[in-house]
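anyone seen this seq b4? input:
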Amino acid sequence: SNAIRDISSIELIKEMRFGWNLGNTLDAECTSWMDYEKNPIGSETCWGNVKTNEDIFKTLMDNQFNVFRIPTTWTGHIGEAPEYKINEQWMKRVHEIVDYPYKNGAFVILNIHHETWNHAFAETVDEAKVELAQVWKQIAEEFKGYGERLIFEGQNEPRKNGTPVEWNGGDKEGWDVVNAMNAVFLETVRSSGGNNAKRHLMIPPYAAACNENSFKNFDFPEDDDKVIASVHAYSPYNFALNNGEGAVDKFDASGKNELDWNINLMKKRFVDQGIPMILGEYGAMNRDNEEERAAWAEYYMEKITALGVPQVWWDNGVFEGEGERFGLIDRKNLKIVYPSIVAALQKGRGLEVNVLHAIETEPEE
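predicted toks r here
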């Protein structure tokens, strides 16, 4: 087993440059049509991405990425109550993928992602706490020998799904459930042995939302210096994320204002309070506007770098079509599809600009 350094999360995040999410991969959820028992690891590719390999991470590390978030959906791979035993083949595959970047010296964030059982409702919280504890007990056991570069993230965007408060910062019921679940996660991992007493743990506010209400009603432990707040901010919304009415392809003055407002919210709630934070997801989708996205990326990166916050690009492997087009690397051919965006990240982060493995032409669908 590796040693684990006894350092605070504030110190740890200083070693991070910028990151990348292995999106739409281990977090793919195809239980409605796929027989998970027949093929316990088939879901990795069921949303259309290639089988993950080490070279994807090496290609990104060559471009100065050193944080990799591995969004993972355990639903469909978990047995019945009360054990909630995780399928062994699935755990092995998750472990292999964690090792690809970890063995190459990068930071890795492992989470639970599109779960259906941890929604933030009072009526289901008691059962959800038991399942959360059982799932994290098993993950914590699997990786207890790992050093400080492996981070566990307790939940992804826990919220009151399908309600009017799903995305607007929540309400008391939602905040209370998220806080209670975060506490169960922290307690479970901390007491799980090995290096986990000193492991760095990420917890989200309600929906991981960059929002005054979600921030104000977020319980953050004051007695543990190895906990990191996890926030997602696809900002400005109409430029970065909106795929419908009101979407824009220019990063203009009003967009800058909105982004500044969000960054200032994070600054006041976390940075100014001495609370370590990671921007676990951000990105701006392709609208055939690479130049605008590069300008946005450099601006965002400069501002967030000044706050000392690492950030992790959401890459779902999608480049064209009607969906959310957040692809950055062509995983099949190991090419950077938007080199000017990667250059902007490097520049905004204050690193030497040097994009390797850039694509010659646009990827074919």
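The chain has a mean pLDDT of 97. The first strand starts at residue 18 and ends at 22. kinda curious what u guys think
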